[in-house]
Amino acid sequence: MERFELAKSAIIRAGAALRQCSLDKTEVQRKTGHQDLVTCWDRKIEQMLRREILDAFPQDRVLGEEYPEEPGSLDAVVWYFDPIDGTTNFVNQRRSYAVSIGCWEGEQPLFGLVLDVERSSLYWAKKGSGAWRDSEAICVSQRREISDLLLTTPCIQYTFLEIHPHRERMLKLARDVRAVRSLGSVALELCQVAAGEADMFVTTRSAPWDHNAARVILQEAGGCICTLDGDTLPVNSKTTVAAFNSPEMQKLILQSKY
Ligand code: IPD
Ligand code: CA
Ligand code: CA
After folding, report:
1. Where in the chain is the domain with CATH 3.30.540.10?
2. How far apart are CA 238 and CA 87, in angstroms?
Protein backbone atom coordinates (compact mmCIF):
# COMPACT_ATOMS: atom_id res chain seq x y z
CA MET A 1 0.00 0.00 0.00
CA GLU A 2 1.33 3.46 -0.80
CA ARG A 3 1.76 6.04 1.96
CA PHE A 4 -1.36 8.09 1.16
CA GLU A 5 -3.62 5.03 1.07
CA LEU A 6 -2.18 3.78 4.35
CA ALA A 7 -2.75 7.20 5.96
CA LYS A 8 -6.32 7.33 4.69
CA SER A 9 -7.26 3.91 5.99
CA ALA A 10 -5.50 4.57 9.34
CA ILE A 11 -7.23 7.91 9.87
CA ILE A 12 -10.65 6.43 9.08
CA ARG A 13 -10.06 3.63 11.59
CA ALA A 14 -8.85 6.14 14.19
CA GLY A 15 -12.03 8.17 13.68
CA ALA A 16 -14.25 5.11 14.07
CA ALA A 17 -12.48 4.18 17.33
CA LEU A 18 -12.93 7.72 18.69
CA ARG A 19 -16.61 7.92 17.75
CA GLN A 20 -17.29 4.68 19.62
CA CYS A 21 -15.08 5.21 22.66
CA SER A 22 -16.22 6.00 26.17
CA LEU A 23 -14.22 8.29 28.40
CA ASP A 24 -14.14 8.11 32.16
CA LYS A 25 -13.15 11.20 34.22
CA THR A 26 -10.12 9.33 35.53
CA GLU A 27 -8.83 8.99 31.98
CA VAL A 28 -8.44 12.77 31.52
CA GLN A 29 -5.27 14.38 32.85
CA ARG A 30 -3.63 17.78 32.86
CA LYS A 31 -0.41 17.84 30.89
CA THR A 32 1.43 21.19 31.23
CA GLY A 33 -1.41 22.95 33.10
CA HIS A 34 -5.17 23.35 33.41
CA GLN A 35 -5.50 24.51 29.78
CA ASP A 36 -3.68 21.49 28.33
CA LEU A 37 -5.45 18.13 28.62
CA VAL A 38 -4.54 14.64 27.53
CA THR A 39 -6.70 11.53 27.63
CA CYS A 40 -6.01 7.83 27.33
CA TRP A 41 -7.46 8.09 23.80
CA ASP A 42 -4.85 10.62 22.65
CA ARG A 43 -2.22 8.05 23.62
CA LYS A 44 -4.04 5.00 22.23
CA ILE A 45 -4.66 6.62 18.84
CA GLU A 46 -1.10 7.89 18.59
CA GLN A 47 0.25 4.40 19.39
CA MET A 48 -2.02 2.90 16.76
CA LEU A 49 -0.89 5.39 14.09
CA ARG A 50 2.80 4.96 14.99
CA ARG A 51 2.56 1.18 14.82
CA GLU A 52 0.74 1.10 11.49
CA ILE A 53 3.05 3.61 9.82
CA LEU A 54 6.32 2.16 11.10
CA ASP A 55 5.27 -1.43 10.32
CA ALA A 56 4.65 -0.45 6.70
CA PHE A 57 7.47 2.12 6.32
CA PRO A 58 10.16 1.32 8.91
CA GLN A 59 12.60 3.76 7.30
CA ASP A 60 10.24 6.75 7.85
CA ARG A 61 10.21 9.01 10.93
CA VAL A 62 7.12 9.78 12.98
CA LEU A 63 6.55 12.90 15.03
CA GLY A 64 3.42 12.84 17.17
CA GLU A 65 2.30 15.01 20.06
CA GLU A 66 2.23 12.52 22.89
CA TYR A 67 5.47 10.51 22.61
CA PRO A 68 9.10 11.57 22.18
CA GLU A 69 10.54 11.59 18.68
CA GLU A 70 12.64 8.56 17.74
CA PRO A 71 16.06 9.49 16.36
CA GLY A 72 16.36 9.04 12.59
CA SER A 73 17.73 10.49 9.39
CA LEU A 74 16.87 14.12 8.66
CA ASP A 75 16.42 13.23 4.98
CA ALA A 76 13.76 10.62 5.75
CA VAL A 77 10.08 10.99 4.99
CA VAL A 78 8.52 12.41 8.17
CA TRP A 79 4.95 11.86 9.35
CA TYR A 80 3.52 14.54 11.64
CA PHE A 81 0.41 13.52 13.49
CA ASP A 82 -1.90 14.75 16.15
CA PRO A 83 -4.08 11.88 17.44
CA ILE A 84 -6.68 14.35 18.75
CA ASP A 85 -6.46 18.03 17.85
CA GLY A 86 -9.00 19.73 20.08
CA THR A 87 -8.76 17.49 23.14
CA THR A 88 -10.77 19.95 25.24
CA ASN A 89 -13.62 19.73 22.69
CA PHE A 90 -13.31 15.93 22.73
CA VAL A 91 -13.63 15.90 26.54
CA ASN A 92 -16.35 18.56 26.94
CA GLN A 93 -18.44 18.42 23.79
CA ARG A 94 -17.66 15.33 21.73
CA ARG A 95 -17.53 17.46 18.60
CA SER A 96 -15.09 19.71 16.71
CA TYR A 97 -11.97 17.62 17.22
CA ALA A 98 -9.75 16.10 14.56
CA VAL A 99 -7.17 13.48 13.76
CA SER A 100 -4.41 15.06 11.70
CA ILE A 101 -1.74 13.34 9.57
CA GLY A 102 0.78 15.26 7.46
CA CYS A 103 3.55 13.61 5.46
CA TRP A 104 6.61 15.55 4.32
CA GLU A 105 9.94 14.86 2.65
CA GLY A 106 12.26 17.45 4.16
CA GLU A 107 10.74 20.86 3.34
CA GLN A 108 8.47 19.38 0.65
CA PRO A 109 4.89 18.43 1.49
CA LEU A 110 3.66 15.08 0.16
CA PHE A 111 0.11 15.06 1.51
CA GLY A 112 -2.10 16.04 4.44
CA LEU A 113 -5.29 14.56 5.91
CA VAL A 114 -7.51 16.05 8.62
CA LEU A 115 -10.53 14.09 9.80
CA ASP A 116 -13.37 16.03 11.45
CA VAL A 117 -14.21 13.00 13.55
CA GLU A 118 -17.80 13.59 14.62
CA ARG A 119 -18.90 14.94 11.25
CA SER A 120 -17.05 12.10 9.48
CA SER A 121 -15.64 14.65 7.02
CA LEU A 122 -12.18 13.99 5.65
CA TYR A 123 -10.20 16.98 4.38
CA TRP A 124 -7.25 15.91 2.26
CA ALA A 125 -4.74 17.06 -0.31
CA LYS A 126 -1.80 15.61 -2.18
CA LYS A 127 0.83 18.11 -3.32
CA GLY A 128 -0.19 19.47 -6.72
CA SER A 129 -3.63 17.80 -6.84
CA GLY A 130 -6.02 20.31 -5.28
CA ALA A 131 -7.83 20.15 -1.94
CA TRP A 132 -10.83 18.00 -1.07
CA ARG A 133 -13.45 17.37 1.56
CA ASP A 134 -14.43 13.75 0.99
CA SER A 135 -15.07 13.73 -2.79
CA GLU A 136 -15.86 17.46 -3.14
CA ALA A 137 -13.19 19.93 -4.27
CA ILE A 138 -12.77 22.83 -1.84
CA CYS A 139 -11.29 26.28 -2.27
CA VAL A 140 -10.67 29.44 -0.29
CA SER A 141 -13.05 32.41 -0.17
CA GLN A 142 -12.77 35.41 -2.50
CA ARG A 143 -13.10 38.14 0.16
CA ARG A 144 -10.56 40.93 -0.27
CA GLU A 145 -11.71 43.65 2.19
CA ILE A 146 -10.46 43.48 5.77
CA SER A 147 -13.89 44.57 7.00
CA ASP A 148 -15.46 41.54 5.25
CA LEU A 149 -13.20 38.93 6.84
CA LEU A 150 -14.17 36.20 9.27
CA LEU A 151 -11.09 35.62 11.42
CA THR A 152 -10.63 32.37 13.29
CA THR A 153 -8.22 31.70 16.15
CA PRO A 154 -7.99 28.46 18.13
CA CYS A 155 -7.40 29.93 21.58
CA ILE A 156 -8.86 33.29 22.67
CA GLN A 157 -6.64 33.36 25.77
CA TYR A 158 -3.36 32.96 23.85
CA THR A 159 -4.23 35.34 21.01
CA PHE A 160 -5.95 38.23 22.77
CA LEU A 161 -5.54 37.95 26.55
CA GLU A 162 -1.94 36.89 27.16
CA ILE A 163 0.75 39.53 26.94
CA HIS A 164 2.90 38.79 23.86
CA PRO A 165 4.68 40.83 21.18
CA HIS A 166 1.81 40.56 18.63
CA ARG A 167 -1.04 41.35 21.03
CA GLU A 168 -1.74 44.95 19.96
CA ARG A 169 -1.78 43.91 16.27
CA MET A 170 -4.15 41.04 17.05
CA LEU A 171 -6.51 43.33 18.97
CA LYS A 172 -6.57 45.85 16.12
CA LEU A 173 -7.22 43.09 13.60
CA ALA A 174 -10.07 41.75 15.74
CA ARG A 175 -11.65 45.21 15.84
CA ASP A 176 -11.34 45.70 12.06
CA VAL A 177 -12.63 42.36 10.75
CA ARG A 178 -16.30 41.44 10.50
CA ALA A 179 -16.19 38.74 13.16
CA VAL A 180 -13.90 36.51 15.18
CA ARG A 181 -14.61 32.82 15.82
CA SER A 182 -12.83 30.16 17.84
CA LEU A 183 -13.47 26.47 17.28
CA GLY A 184 -10.59 25.17 19.42
CA SER A 185 -8.67 23.09 16.87
CA VAL A 186 -5.78 24.42 14.78
CA ALA A 187 -6.24 21.70 12.15
CA LEU A 188 -10.00 22.20 11.72
CA GLU A 189 -9.73 25.99 11.69
CA LEU A 190 -7.07 25.90 8.93
CA CYS A 191 -9.43 23.57 7.03
CA GLN A 192 -12.22 26.13 7.50
CA VAL A 193 -10.05 28.70 5.72
CA ALA A 194 -9.25 26.10 3.03
CA ALA A 195 -12.98 25.49 2.49
CA GLY A 196 -13.91 29.19 2.41
CA GLU A 197 -15.85 29.03 5.71
CA ALA A 198 -13.40 31.42 7.37
CA ASP A 199 -11.12 33.90 5.62
CA MET A 200 -8.13 34.16 7.91
CA PHE A 201 -6.52 32.32 10.86
CA VAL A 202 -4.05 33.42 13.53
CA THR A 203 -2.41 31.78 16.51
CA THR A 204 0.56 32.61 18.68
CA ARG A 205 1.28 28.92 19.39
CA SER A 206 1.25 26.00 17.06
CA ALA A 207 3.30 22.83 16.81
CA PRO A 208 4.25 20.84 13.69
CA TRP A 209 1.64 18.16 14.54
CA ASP A 210 -1.06 20.86 14.80
CA HIS A 211 -0.55 22.45 11.37
CA ASN A 212 1.63 20.31 9.06
CA ALA A 213 -1.31 18.38 7.61
CA ALA A 214 -3.81 21.24 7.30
CA ARG A 215 -1.27 23.63 5.75
CA VAL A 216 -0.95 21.27 2.76
CA ILE A 217 -4.74 21.32 2.37
CA LEU A 218 -4.89 25.10 2.74
CA GLN A 219 -2.18 25.74 0.16
CA GLU A 220 -3.74 23.32 -2.32
CA ALA A 221 -7.06 25.17 -1.83
CA GLY A 222 -5.42 28.45 -2.88
CA GLY A 223 -4.60 29.86 0.56
CA CYS A 224 -1.27 30.81 2.04
CA ILE A 225 0.42 30.53 5.43
CA CYS A 226 3.34 32.17 7.24
CA THR A 227 4.41 33.19 10.74
CA LEU A 228 2.87 36.25 12.40
CA ASP A 229 6.05 38.09 11.35
CA GLY A 230 5.46 37.17 7.71
CA ASP A 231 8.29 34.62 7.56
CA THR A 232 8.13 31.18 5.97
CA LEU A 233 6.47 28.74 8.34
CA PRO A 234 9.07 26.25 9.67
CA VAL A 235 8.35 22.54 9.15
CA ASN A 236 9.95 21.23 12.30
CA SER A 237 9.48 23.69 15.13
CA LYS A 238 6.78 25.38 17.19
CA THR A 239 5.75 28.72 15.74
CA THR A 240 3.20 31.50 15.46
CA VAL A 241 0.90 31.09 12.43
CA ALA A 242 -1.08 33.40 10.16
CA ALA A 243 -3.10 31.88 7.31
CA PHE A 244 -4.94 33.77 4.58
CA ASN A 245 -7.41 33.11 1.78
CA SER A 246 -4.95 34.51 -0.80
CA PRO A 247 -1.46 35.97 -1.29
CA GLU A 248 -3.18 39.38 -1.85
CA MET A 249 -4.75 39.31 1.62
CA GLN A 250 -1.47 38.16 3.17
CA LYS A 251 0.29 41.15 1.58
CA LEU A 252 -2.45 43.61 2.50
CA ILE A 253 -2.62 42.52 6.13
CA LEU A 254 1.13 42.30 6.68
CA GLN A 255 1.67 45.66 4.94
CA SER A 256 -1.07 47.27 7.04
CA LYS A 257 1.16 46.42 10.05
CA TYR A 258 -1.33 44.08 11.62
C1 IPD B 1 -4.56 22.42 20.72
C2 IPD B 1 -5.76 22.92 19.96
C3 IPD B 1 -6.07 24.31 20.45
C4 IPD B 1 -4.90 25.25 20.23
C5 IPD B 1 -3.66 24.71 20.90
C6 IPD B 1 -3.38 23.28 20.44
P7 IPD B 1 -4.59 19.83 21.33
O8 IPD B 1 -4.24 21.11 20.37
O9 IPD B 1 -5.51 22.93 18.56
O10 IPD B 1 -7.18 24.83 19.79
O11 IPD B 1 -5.17 26.51 20.74
O12 IPD B 1 -2.56 25.54 20.57
O13 IPD B 1 -2.26 22.81 21.15
O14 IPD B 1 -3.82 20.02 22.60
O15 IPD B 1 -6.04 19.79 21.51
O16 IPD B 1 -4.02 18.74 20.48
CA1 CA C 1 -3.09 19.83 18.64
CA1 CA D 1 -3.42 16.66 20.48
Report:
1. 3-138
2. 18
